[in-house]
Design goal:
The structure is a homodimer of 337-residue chains. Chain A has 337 residues and is of the alpha+beta class. Chain A is built from 11 helices and 12 strands. Chains A and B meet through strand 3, strand 4, strand 7, helix 8 and helix 9 of A and strand 3, strand 4, strand 7, helix 8 and helix 9 of B. Chains A, B: This is Sulfolactate dehydrogenase.
Chain lengths: 337, 337
Amino acid sequence: MFVNPAEWHEICTKMFTTVGVPEEDAGLVADTALTADIRGVASHGSVRLPVYRERIQRGLINPTPSIRIVNDCPTLVHLDGDNGLAQVVDNKAAQIAAERANKYGVCCVATYNTNHMALLSHYGLKIAEQGLIAYIMCNTPPFVATMGAAEPVIGTNPICWCIPGKEFPIVLDMAISPARGKIKNAAAAGKPIPEGWALDKNGRPTTDAAAALEGMLLPIAGHKGYGIGVVVEVFSALLTGGKYGKNVTHPLDDYDHKPNCGNFIMALDPSKIMAEEDFVRRVDDYVQMVKSSKKSSPDADILFPGELEHRNELLVAERGLEISDETYQQYKSMVGQ
Amino acid sequence: MFVNPAEWHEICTKMFTTVGVPEEDAGLVADTALTADIRGVASHGSVRLPVYRERIQRGLINPTPSIRIVNDCPTLVHLDGDNGLAQVVDNKAAQIAAERANKYGVCCVATYNTNHMALLSHYGLKIAEQGLIAYIMCNTPPFVATMGAAEPVIGTNPICWCIPGKEFPIVLDMAISPARGKIKNAAAAGKPIPEGWALDKNGRPTTDAAAALEGMLLPIAGHKGYGIGVVVEVFSALLTGGKYGKNVTHPLDDYDHKPNCGNFIMALDPSKIMAEEDFVRRVDDYVQMVKSSKKSSPDADILFPGELEHRNELLVAERGLEISDETYQQYKSMVGQ
């Protein structure tokens, strides 16, 4: 079924006000989920909300955190999330980063005691909407091996940059490994996965999707993907005071621990170097330069990072948001409708 | 032959003082080349120096630039390199970034009107030696295609992070494509290159190294490598005022243009969040955690980013720097010795 995003936002918000989250904060959780749903990244969208809700109900997430600046330098800010929802803590972090970038040129906010961040580019887009460049990182539990290892040593560790553009913001929001979701889909369909994606539980290369799920992922581009994963671990966990490496517990699946996630958010103001319109003009000129390149076939499409997600936004604006009947009914009943 | 690095440094310095570069600046050029040579990245080391020297002699590089802060915010600094050697301009940029990071927590310096940066991690290591984290980017002429394109649309666009460590600094300094040097070596040896590395001049996939050299590279990890390349182009060129996209001319091979390279250097001070020794202890704990993981075979080596280069430094300290007899004689005669 197709729902009106505003209606879906209201239902998602109520899922949290009904478990003690203040109205405004509950709206932030819904915002984040809707951004992912509307941009076609459903795996990071409203599908996650029942878990967040259950974690609040089971005392694993603080619904009313006192988010606190611990150190203030003033362009490197250390933020204690008091175990609040990341959607609340990191929204605050992005706000601080943007305000300070406007003032000083650049600002980085390092958060800890936070939870599952979901779509990094949600926070980045909030920053880019203000004409600023965002750079965001977040570590995850270890799922990924590296050369010479026969067990996971690093997370899928997403890294994200968002840049203001003319027709659409440039957005790169990527994990340093193939997506586990794609492997799950292959396993469900009984299909193989490409070579180089995964090892089995004994650390041997495999193209068997089921064996890969029992085993571990491999980093993209070998030592380069692994290296980016290490960088993400440093910025988002070692630097922030968050849990790192093998001590990271799953912020969704593990109900025995509070995860103490750490995140890193930077905002940078290009208008401190050139007029905002000049920067956006240069970005647009570059986009057009790349997109008008010689094509490999007449119907080839040279995409820019973030362009597919922007097309999805346009599609949703036209026809509404596709939600399964089952999810729609489940969420409605959760909020007593 | 093996030379004493100090002797080699002196010869390299003289190569530039003899063409009008002030002694201190010439020393910086030698520093950068030596860092690359000593860390086993000879392709970015002293082998490049005759080209820099010739470019100075032909009026393409300004040997005595007036490097000038154009905008000062104070943590986003715009630096006009006055067409100086990047080894001089970006050393200044790294210095400013580190000083300001010490004061404010973080500082980014965007340079333009500069030249070939060579090894990004040289500048990053200078920052990491002071206990700071470095993040550096630099665009290049277009050598890399992307999905749907049949011509190069983006540079090999290196990106680099350096992080202080206990036994060695963590260093990731990577291009977003396979190394052209490896393809040149394969072509010279008449060997094929792996699938997915390159397209021929008509934009068709090829494993023929010679055809690849006439054609174009492919980004690592498909849209992810391409996306990182776009990010590097934005930070180092669109933001700085440097040349971007297809307008970039080769800073070594093109003797018809001054390249107006742009670079981006960030420094961040972890001691604003926790005591320096606590940060380094966390980094070291993480390094040990990863390195002590279960191995794929008893003699497997789980390396950390920057570890191989550190081992090369130790080797050079022991036995000296390997330089070909021909290069040694050539450089000596250039400086009249």
